[in-house]
Amino acid sequence: MSIDIPSTEDFAELTQHRHAASVTAYVASSGHHDSRSPIGRNPEVAQLALRTAVGESLSRLESAEIPAEDRDSIVAAVDELVDDRDFWATQARSIAVFVSPDRLRAFRLMNHLRTHSSEGDRFDTGPLIRATTFAHSGFVLALTRGSARLLALESDASCHEVELTGLPEDLGLELQTADNEGRMDRQRADGSLRPKIQRRDFCSTVQEAVLRQINGSQHPLVLAASPDLEPAYREVNTYRRLLDEGIEANPASLSLDDLARRGREVLDRNYATQLAAWREEFGTLRAHGRASAKLREIARAATAGQVDVLLFDLAAEREGTIDEYGNVTPADEPGAHTYGLADEVAARVLRTGGIVKAVRSADLPDGAKIAATFRSAR
């Protein structure tokens, strides 16, 4: 799938970077939001969009009297990325590019993000943070004898099938019972003697292909397997985000739309349970001075590395600045040196090893826009 999962170190590097000529570009697979085709099917469209977006930022940097050599360095770095065929051979729906005269970092994302660019003395990591911490995304694995299909469920309610590479063309033969007393050239177990081993080996083969696509992801996986394979897959599974609840129907009888719908129902129930438990914990910890829903308190705690878990409104737009001590100065309107306050707090939490979740406003306690639990009393 060629999806890049930003690590804590990635976020630390991106959010701490400072240079007067810092350009951020988010590029979707198409200029139309209703298009869900992956970038790899028509990379030229995304490449042109990237050049255009970066070009717009360069024009604004020129107006800001940024030296020509800095702008030329950015152009050279972007040209090199455009020429990287491996990068563009992807099923990603969007890319995020962060470039300045001294570096370029690029990420391929499952989410479909709006194409736009920005520039200033720092990178605009907000959309990247929101895209990678919004929990209404996940995967569904549909598993039957001789068939394995992986669906990616995106946060905007769309879905697409992910190609599982490396599977044998005759996958179904791994579960076929040997009909000549086990004496075959192919290394297959006698189904009458080793059915459990056969099923486990089959599921191990499938899991290797699945992990090649999603390993490192923070998104949950929902299993939809035939009754004979469901316990075998769970036995060999090593993906830590496989949910206990699966789809209780043989996937052979379900269309991709049905799988997506039922998968989302499982994701929603799991997510609602997690949030309810967190809100209850939040209330208990707040009574003991270890939680807050006040931006100024949370910003200071995040700066001091004291935030354990942060939830913030996915649609939060308030801008301003936060100094090195965590003091917040809101801005009446966005400016060249302002940024999203919730995004900046989230970046500081990620840099210090905390957990960040972008959520819908209704998921936050007491109608707040941001809420956090602390590692110690404030």
Structure in a nutshell:
By secondary structure, the protein is an alpha+beta fold. Helix content is 36%, strand content 20%.
How is the secondary structure organized here?
Layout: H1 8-16, E1 22-28, H2 43-63, H3 68-82, H4 85-88, E2 94-100, E3 103-109, E4 116-120, H5 126-133, E5 138-144, E6 147-153, E7 159-162, H6 195-214, E8 221-225, H7 230-236, H8 256-287, E9 291-292, H9 295-303, E10 307-313, E11 319-322, E12 328-330, E13 339-340, H10 341-351, E14 355-359, E15 370-374
Parallel strand pairs: 5-8, 10-14
Antiparallel strand pairs: 1-2, 1-4, 2-3, 5-6, 6-7, 9-15, 10-15, 11-12, 11-13
Helix pairs in contact: 1-10, 2-3, 5-10, 6-7, 9-10
What's the alpha carbon Rg, rounded to whole Å?
Answer: 24 Å
Poorly predicted runs: 31-35, 177-191
Q: What strand order characterises the main sheet?
A: 3-2-1-4
Alpha-carbon distance between the two ends: 43 Å
Main beta sheet: 4 strands, antiparallel
Mean pLDDT: 88
Describe it:
Strands 3-2-1-4 form a four-stranded antiparallel β-sheet, with helices on both faces. Strands 7-6-5-8 form a four-stranded mixed β-sheet, sandwiched between helices. With 378 residues, it is an alpha+beta fold. Residues 31-35 and 177-191 have low confidence and may be disordered. Helix 1 (8-16) crosses helix 10 and helix 2 runs antiparallel to helix 3. The chain has three domains: 8-133, eRF1 domain 1 (Translation, Eukaryotic Peptide Chain Release Factor Subunit 1, Chain A, 2-Layer Sandwich); 138-271, Nucleotidyltransferase, domain 5 (2-Layer Sandwich); 288-374, Ribosomal protein L30/S12 (60s Ribosomal Protein L30, Chain: A). It is built from ten helices and 15 strands.
